[in-house]
Specification:
With 197 residues, the chain is an alpha+beta fold. It has one domain: Glutaredoxin, CATH 3.40.30.10. An eight-stranded mixed β-sheet has the order 1-8-7-4-5-6-2-3. β7 and β8 form a beta hairpin. The radius of gyration is 18 Å and the shape is globular. About 20% of the residues have low confidence.
Length: 197
């Protein structure tokens, strides 16, 4: 009996630690752990031109994607979900960016990948609980797939930073949560504000 306990306890601890590591690093269908900014130009896996998707907003009428980006403002589109642990960890950083830069023409827009016909009340309650200070909406599966590219994992959170001209900034794609999201966004936004994007 003692021999079994000696084997089971380390194995259980390993399994629990592995699961927690994957859960807190990034949410995806495959449990992939990604936390990086893509280097160089816009990735070949990311579409250069996107369809003008209809976006259902949480507390406003639906809008077109083209109405959200450009218009001489810097926009951070963040894909997330209420059930995603790393997304929850990232929210305070997004709130801080919104507070710091809202008077400089920067806007955070959080687009949950949950279905509006099933999750509207849940997302409203979540937004209130987390005191989210930026606009929220719902991404269709098609829209998220277009942003996500051919990667079948569908990792969230993901953020895309668009310059004042409505184009994705070089290195403007952040995958995964983590404590460095604020600094990464700040760097991209500062570059865009200085016109170096």
């Amino acid at each position: 009996m003692r021999h079994r306990i000696t084997l089971v306890l380390p194995l259980a601890a390993f399994i629990i630690l592995s699961a927690l590591t994957l859960f807190f690093a990034a949410c995806s269908g495959s449990g992939s752990v990604l936390d990086r900014i893509e280097s160089g130009k816009a990735s070949a896996s990311r579409p250069q031109q996107l369809k003008d998707y209809d976006v259902v907003m949480l507390d406003a009428p639906p809008v077109k994607l083209s109405q959200m980006t450009g218009k001489n403002k810097i926009v951070v589109l963040n894909f997330w979900a209420t059930w995603c642990g790393p997304c929850r960890q990232e929210i305070p950083q997004l709130k801080a960016i919104q507070r710091e830069y809202q008077n400089q023409g920067v806007e955070i827009i959080g687009l949950t990948i949950e279905a509006p016909n099933q999750a509207t009340e849940q997302v409203k309650a979540f937004a209130q609980e987390y005191e989210i200070n930026y606009r929220l909406g719902f991404s269709s599966g098609e829209m998220f797939a277009a942003f996500n590219g051919p990667d079948p994992r569908g990792v969230i959170p993901q953020s895309f930073v668009f310059g004042r001209d409505g184009n994705l900034l070089p290195n403007g794609h952040i995958i995964g949560g983590g404590s460095g999201v604020h600094a990464k966004l700040q760097t991209l936004i500062e570059q865009a504000l200085k016109g170096s994007s």
